[in-house]
Amino acid sequence: MKNRVDYYLLHTYVCANMGIRSAHQHEISLSHKYYNGGIEMKIAVIGGNGQMGRLIIGEAVTRGHEVTAFVRKSGVILETPSIVVKDLFDLTYDDLKDYEVIVNAFGVWKSDEVGQFTDAAKHLSNVLNGKSNRLLVIGSAGSLYVDEELTKMFMNTPEMPEIAIPVATEQEKALSFLRTKDDVRWTYLSPPVDFRIDGERTGTYQLAGERLAFSSKGESQISYADGAIAVVDEIENGKYINARFSIVAV
């Protein structure tokens, strides 16, 4: 898979020159314990054989949760023995009803495939319509806002790499669709601009909201490993129901 940092690379000097400050941030220190009174959760990860999916599975399993990976092809080796081979668009509620949280870590990058992001959001919303199961979607940074008025998205700025626009556009359509779904318990995560597949696992991150956030070094970046920590924290805490949140390195 092509490294997402290739799509979303943003140099520090650009961040500084844009003069943006993230709102409502705070640092999170992880202790690797889970919540719900110590009761393990049943979690489904769609796209479990992708880079992000694998890390989410590993993080959740480490904390004692029961995780099932949903993949399109057989023969993958993951940190969970529970693997279901089935295409996302063939999933029914019978496939997902036993899971408290369904993580959609599905990803495509070719311009003729990116429309599947919106299709996936619609399909999973239809499946989970009116149900208590939660849907957590891994999105992109392009739809994060760069102004206090929340009128201008990062993908509409000159700093947005042209190659990343098709993915960001379709991910924003998926988010806009989810915002209309009050009958689905959805959460949407926007990572920062520079989402590093092989970045260091520091065990810390900052939470942010609708605006593009920056680290103490003036960078909009985080590692996949720390992103996975944030995902599992949200699975456990359920803080952002029917809302989008974003993350960035400390």
Task: Explain what you see.
- The protein has 250 residues and is of the alpha/beta class.
- The chain has a domain at 4-18 and 31-38 and 98-248: Rossmann fold, CATH 3.40.50.720.
- It has seven helices and eleven strands.
- The strands form two sheets. Strands 1-9-11-7-6-5-2-3-4 form a nine-stranded mixed β-sheet, sandwiched between helices. Strands 8-10 form a two-stranded parallel sheet.
- α3 (51-62) crosses α7 and α5 runs parallel beside α6 (165-179).
- The two termini are 27 Å apart.
- The model is unreliable at 1-36 (pLDDT under 50).
Largest sheet: 9 strands, mixed
Strand residue content = 15-25%
Overall geometric form = globular
SSE order, one letter for each helix or strand: HHEEHEEHEHEHEEEEHE
Mind telling me the C-alpha Rg?
Answer: 17 Å
Tell me, rounded to a whole number, the average pLDDT. 86
Measured distance between first and last alpha carbons:
27 Å
Unreliable parts: 1-36
Number of helices: 7
Name of the top-level CATH class of the domain at 4-18 and 31-38 and 98-248: Alpha Beta
Trace the largest sheet across and list its strands.
1-9-11-7-6-5-2-3-4
Oligomer: single chain
